[in-house]
## 1
Amino acid sequence: MLNTYFRVIVGVMVLLSVVLTFYVNQNWMWFTVFIGVNLIQSAFTKWCLLETILVKLGVKKEGGNCSSC
């Protein structure tokens, strides 16, 4: 269940940042960069802030973490 929530939230955030970049201001592209950098760092550190937040909100882990998505 955690992987499903993670993928949906990250996908929505990326799409939202692209829409904001196109319609509001080009500086919103930095939000997309931030998301990408967080995904890369979680692959190396095996720690993901979004995963931590989701677990604290009660989402069940299926085994694995963000870097295994």
Note: The mean pLDDT is 89.
## 2
Amino acid sequence: MAAYVISEIEVREPEAMERYRDLAARSIAQYGGRYLVRGGPAEAVEGGPPAKTLIIVEFPSMARLREWYASPEYAEALGERWKALDRRLVFVEGAAPA
């Protein structure tokens, strides 16, 4: 069953963000992930504060998603992440096929 990483971000440093984005994208592809949403305009229609920049990545399974997150390839991106952006990160399993 597919699993998803949902990131809500605020960029801190644009140059570090570019480095993070490149490293993260390579590692995501290596672990079978694909971007579904990558920072397009977001509109909060109900409740809460205004929407921040959203990124949604799909992985083949929660196991593969967790493997990616703990990987040495993504660790390199995480080194840039702390300079690049603030974020809320959520892992969620997809719905079972009907």
Note: The mean pLDDT is 94.
## 3
Amino acid sequence: MTAAIAASAVFAAVPAPASAASATSTLQAPTETATPAAPPIPDDPNDPARAMEYWLDGAGIRQAWNVTRGKGVKIAVIDTGIGKPPVIFDGAVADGTDVSGVGSADGRTPVGVRDPNHGSWVASLAAGRGNPDGTGMIGVAPEAQLLSVSLGFPGSASTKPFVDQVVEAMKWAVDHDADVINLSFTTNTLDWDRSWDEAFLYAFEHDVVVIVAAGNRGSGTSMIGAPATIPGVLTVGGVDQTGVASRGASTQGITIGISAPSESLLGVSADGTLRSWDGTSGAAPIVAGAAALVRAAHPDLDAANVINRLIRTAQPVPDMARTPDPLYGYGLLDAEAAVTASIPRVSSNPMGDLKEWIRVYRRADAPEQPVPEQPATPVAVPPLPPVERSVEAASPLLPTEESLRYGTLPLLALTVPGILVALGVTAAARRIRSERGRRTPTP
């Protein structure tokens, strides 16, 4: 317990950003600071379970509870299903469904043979209730409601394609008024099935904040994969108790937006057992709970501005090479600052625009747009010159019309008179010689 409290102090000692208002160029009027709410729910920091939750102080969650605990916000947990342990989820799960085909209709029966309690661990971090006396594990947004969507991960008994399950789960969550959707899984591939385009666009167009885990090196994920690569989602990287990027319980990638604890986490299993576990699967619901606190404190903000408050108030880490950083994103989660700071509004999602991405990168597959027909107008065309008759090829030994006209006839015109003149001269010469022969010479 002492070690856990000490780790909390180290995690909280990361310096706060110099200016929380360093927003993008699409700034608008700043939002108002949230006003304090009623006294927080019972909370005993000396309780062994609470003392192990070092992120409650390290990430400013207890301080944020002075303003809100997430009341009125719904967090959809699309995972293996939220179980029914005692106390921790009493009154927390508002609705649920199963998209795997092998779970119960309410989504509360754990699905899968590997980590069937995964969904319960995730949900307890996001919005676990804790005991009425202030003891036992408690979630980040303990007054938010949960939607349980049981999903059959690869290797489960589900016969439905995983990509189709995700599409169905996303649409069901949106249609049942989810304000935040948590996805604590990865596909280990950068690209995603095209059917996810429509599903995630459906969430964004209905003003839902989508929180996604970056993945873990310890599980074989060397780089982030979908859905963490989808523009518009808030991807969460993991850090240890000292605020340093986790080597085994996180991964890296340029789409990481924020970091949260991913080592020595707690989770309540479906049977009520308290478990210790690691991974960005746990870092994501911590941020999802913080998003619920922001939405409850600022109900006028859209999803883009909820995400913007989370990343703009994140605490920078000395090891960050740039902002955003491929290990830390914009820094470590600071729930108190996200809830209370005065942050200029933005007009677009700082994590990207999926609709624009689809327009650019799916355009080769898009159907061709019809070309509008222009009304035909008669145009006067001048008559063309007469077509010259083509001359059929003939033997080069035979005279042609043109050779007769331009060669033979002029030659005859010159030759015949010459011949006649020559004949006349010859005849005259003969006559003269004849006359000379008849003359008699004198003595």
Note: The chain is about 30% helix and 10% strand.
